[in-house]
Automatic annotation (TrEMBL), chains A, B:
EC numbers on record: 3.7.1.2
Record: residues binding substrate: 140, 154, 252, 256, 371
Cofactor(s) needed by this chain: Mg(2+); Ca(2+)
GO MF annotations in UniProt: fumarylacetoacetase activity; metal ion binding
Annotated organism of origin: Pollutimonas harenae
Classification via PANTHER family: FUMARYLACETOACETASE
Identification of the protein by name: fumarylacetoacetase
Length: 439, 439
C-alpha cells in the first residue's frame, strides 16, 4: 500500500495562511494529530489536528456533524480525552477522516466558515499525551548504534550473531513516558563497584544520556495468538512521533545482565505531542536497501513490497541547550543529524516480528525504534557515541564541554521530511530538561 | 506495620458455612478480591470478595449503603469493572473495608439478611482480570533459580556479580496477561542456527516451559521523580496473586542478548483471579533471613523492620495434567513444591528498588517475583530446572515423560499459607493450557 492519493498533491493550499508558508512543517499535506486544551486550563484534553500554526478542535468538529460515512465515525471517536479510540478504528477510517479534513481545509472550501471558529493558535494551547500507552516496546534497529555501543564492550566483535536476523527489542516502561516539555530529576541508583567484589556505588547518575528515536503508535491491534503479516503490518500503524529514550549509562552497565535495561531507562521518556500518520509520510517512502553482504531476512520479515517501499526518508536532529547558553541567550547547539532510512529494520518488520509468536498489540501501544544513529561522524544518536564512551567530551560553541548531561541541560530532538517540490512534513519536537537529583 | 488486628482472630467463624470447613482456603480470615460476572454472561465484570465457596457482590453491597466512612468510600470504588479504583485508594481504605466485611460476614452479624442475597456460588460465576495492568515488571528474586539457570550457561560462575546487590528485574508484557483458564497457541519464532553463522531455525517452540511465580499488585502508586521508601513500601501493595510466566527457552536463548527476554515471554502469562491482601497474609509474616556470608544490602534496601518481618511463608506447588492423564481420568501430577520465604529479596525491597530512580508505579501495576525455586531437589520452579536443562526428562506417574511442555498440557500452580492453629489462607490457582501452534 503506498497510500498516495489527492491529499498528497504538492500544489494544495489551505485557507489557513500559515499552512502555506514555506517550511512551516504543518502544511495541508501533513495534518498531524494531537490532544490539547487551552493553556493553563484544567479541563480534559481532546483531539485536534494541526494546520499551519493552528490546531483544529476535532471534538467540536464532531459536534458540527459536517462529515458523513467513515470520516464521521472517525470524528465520533474524537469525542475522547486521547486518540486511542480513533487509533483502534483502523486505516480506512483514518484515511477517510484525513481526506475530508484535507478537503475542508483547502482554499475555497465551503466549510471554511464552519471550521474557522474551531481553530486555536498552537501557542495558546497545552498539548497532552496523545494516547494512553498500554505497552511500550523499544527496539534496537540502527546497526550503526549497535555497532558503536558494541565496540565499547567487544572491540573485535561488536555486533552479536543474532543482530542481522532478529529485530532485537525489549519491553520498556509506559508510565514514565511524557510529552515534550517534560522535566525530571536526575535518576539515582547503584553503580558498578570500584573494585571487583566491592560494594556498589550509590548516588545520582553520572553518565546521563539521551537517545534519538522515533516512536511508532499502534492503531488497530491483533488478537492474542494471531500474528500480523508483513504486508498487512503498516495498516496497523496509526503514525509516528519523536522519542527521547533517556538513559543512565552507569546504572545500565551494572544492572543490565542478564535481563536487560531496567532502572537505567524507566525513569523518563519524552515524546513529541504530534502524531504524523503513515499516510502523511507516504511521499517520503523509499526502497528498503540492504548491503548485499547482509543476509536475506527470514520469509516472515521479507517481501517484495517491503523491499520496494518499506523505508522512510525522515531527517532527525539533536540539539542541546544548557543553563550557560540560555544565560548568554545563545540558541541550542546542533549535536548531530541522522536519518530513519539508515536503520537496519523497518516499521512493518517490527510489527511482524513483535506478533510472530502471537503477542497481542493494542491501539495506543508505542514501539520505539531504538537510537537512530547514521553511518559516520556527525550522525551519532547518543552522547555515548559522540563522546566515544565518555573519553572525548563534546565541545559546545559557547565554550562548554559535555561528556554526559549536566543538570538543567535541555535536549531537543527534531524530525522532518524534506524533498524538492514537496512541502516540509514536520514531526515537531521532543524537548526535555534534566533537573538536579533528589537524594 | 504488622497489620494484625481483630480480623486475624483464628476463632472467627462465618455465617457462610463453607467458610468454616477445614482447609477450605477462603475462610473469613482471608477475604480475597476478584472481579466476576455470571458464568456464560456478557455483562461487565464487577468486584467481589470470596467467603468459603461463595462470592459476595461488592458493587451490589455498595448500593445497599450499609457501611460508613472509609469502608463506604472503598465500597464506592467497587462500582467499577476492575479493582483499579479500590487499589488506588490506599491501605487505610482497604483495611477499613476488610474490617467491615469481616464483621458483616461473622456468625451472628445483623447484616446477614442483607448480604445473603448478594452471594453467588463461585462455581456459577466467571472470574475476570482483577485489574487493568498498566505496566508489568518481572523480577528474578530466587537465588536458587538464578543459580540453577546460570549453571547451565556458566558452570563455574553461575551467579553474576550484581545478583546479591541489585534486585534484578525487567519490564514484561501487560497485554498478554490473562486469568486462570487461559489457553494459547504454542509460540512460533526464531531459534539459534544449528551451525555458527548459519541461518536461524524458525517454527513452533520446542522448549516450552512454565515459571512458578507470585504476582504483586500495586495499590497506591508514587509520583514520577519521587521514590517509595523501604518501610513505607508495603502500604503501596494491594495484594498477591499466583503468576505463571510461560517461557519459550529456545526462542529466549537466541534473542535475549543484549537486551533481555522479549518474544520468549510476551505471548502469554497466566495469573490467579483472586488477589489476597497483605493484611490477610499478615499472620504468615516471618523474619527475612540471609546467609551470614551474603552482603548487607545497601541502606535503601535494608531496615530493622524489614529484616524482622519482611518475608512471607507461602507454600507453592506445580501440577501437570496431560491429554493422556485426562483420558485415563488420572489427576494432575505434583511436579514440585517451594516457598516464597526462600527468595533472596522481599516485597518491600522490590518496590523500593523499582522507584529509587523516580520511576512511577500506578494502581494495578503487576510485579512478578520471578521463578520461585527453593533449595534442593523437588523445589524447582520450572521444567528447565527439573529436567537439568533438557537432559533428564521428568517421569510422570502415568508413564509419560516430559522434557518440555507438549500440546494440550495443562499447568496448574497453587499457593496457600498453612500453620497450626490458623485457618488455611489460599491464593487459589493459576491454570493454563498449551494449544498447538498456528503456522
Amino acid at each position: 500500500m503506498s497510500y498516495l492519493n489527492e491529499t498528497h498533491d504538492p500544489a494544495l493550499q489551505s485557507w489557513v495562511d500559515s499552512a502555506n508558508q514555506p517550511d512551516n512543517g504543518f502544511p495541508i499535506q501533513n495534518l498531524p494529530f494531537a490532544v490539547f486544551r487551552p493553556a493553563g486550563g484544567t479541563q480534559d484534553f481532546h483531539p485536534g489536528v494541526a494546520i499551519g500554526d493552528q490546531v483544529l478542535d476535532l471534538a467540536a468538529l464532531a459536534a458540527a456533524q459536517v462529515f458523513t460515512g467513515k470520516a464521521a465515525e472517525a470524528l465520533g471517536a474524537c469525542k475522547s480525552t486521547t486518540l486511542n479510540k480513533l487509533m483502534s478504528l483502523g486505516q480506512p477510517y483514518w484515511s477517510a477522516l484525513r481526506l475530508e479534513l484535507s478537503r475542508a481545509l483547502r482554499s475555497g472550501s465551503a466549510l471554511q466558515a464552519t471550521l474557522e471558529p474551531l481553530l486555536s493558535n498552537i501557542k495558546d494551547v497545552e498539548l497532552g499525551m496523545p494516547a494512553r500507552i498500554g505497552d511500550y516496546t523499544d527496539f534496537y534497529i540502527s546497526e550503526h548504534h549497535a555497532t558503536a555501543v558494541g565496540k565499547q564492550f567487544r572491540p573485535d566483535n561488536p555486533l552479536l550473531p543474532n543482530y542481522k536476523w532478529v529485530p532485537i527489542g525489549y519491553h520498556g516502561r509506559a508510565s514514565s513516558i511524557n510529552v515534550s516539555g517534560q522535566s525530571f530529576p536526575r535518576p539515582v541508583g547503584q553503580t558498578r563497584p570500584a573494585t571487583e567484589g566491592g560494594t556498589p556505588g550509590f548516588g545520582p547518575c553520572q553518565r546521563l544520556d539521551y537517545e534519538l528515536e522515533l516512536g511508532i503508535f499502534v492503531g488497530q491491534g491483533n488478537t492474542q495468538g494471531e500474528r500480523i503479516n508483513l504486508d498487512e503490518a503498516e495498516a496497523h500503524v496509526f503514525g509516528l512521533c519523536i522519542l527521547n529514550d533517556w538513559s543512565a549509562r552507569d546504572l545500565q552497565a551494572w544492572e543490565y545482565q542478564p535481563l536487560g535495561p531496567f532502572l537505567a531507562k524507566n525513569f523518563a521518556s519524552t515524546i513529541s505531542p504530534w502524531v504524523v500518520t503513515l499516510e502523511a509520510l507516504a511521499p517520503f517512502r523509499i526502497a528498503f536497501e540492504r548491503n548485499p553482504n547482509d543476509p536475506q531476512p527470514l520469509p516472515y520479515l521479507s517481501s517484495a513490497e517491503n523491499q520496494a517501499s518499506g523505508a522512510f526518508d525522515i531527517g532527525l536532529q539533536v540539539f542541546l541547550s544548557t543553563q550557560a547558553s540560555r544565560a548568554q541567550q545563545t540558541g541550542p547547539a546542533l549535536l548531530s543529524e541522522s536519518n530513519f532510512k539508515d536503520a537496519y529494520w523497518n516499521i512493518a518488520q517490527l510489527l511482524a516480528h513483535h506478533t510472530v509468536n502471537g503477542c497481542n498489540l493494542q491501539a495506543g501501544d508505542l514501539l520505539g525504534t531504538g537510537t537512530l544513529s547514521g553511518p559516520g561522524k556527525g550522525k551519532e544518536g547518543s552522547l555515548l557515541e559522540l563522546n566515544n564512551g565518555g573519553k572525548q567530551p563534546v565541545k559546545l560553541p559557547w565554550g562548554e564541554e559535555r561528556s554526559f548531561l549536566q543538570d538543567h541541560d535541555e535536549v531537543i530532538l527534531r524530525a522532518a521530511c524534506r524533498k524538492p517540490g514537496y512541502p516540509t512534513i514536520s514531526l515537531g519536537q521532543s524537548a526535555g530538561t534534566v533537573l538536579p537529583a533528589k537524594i
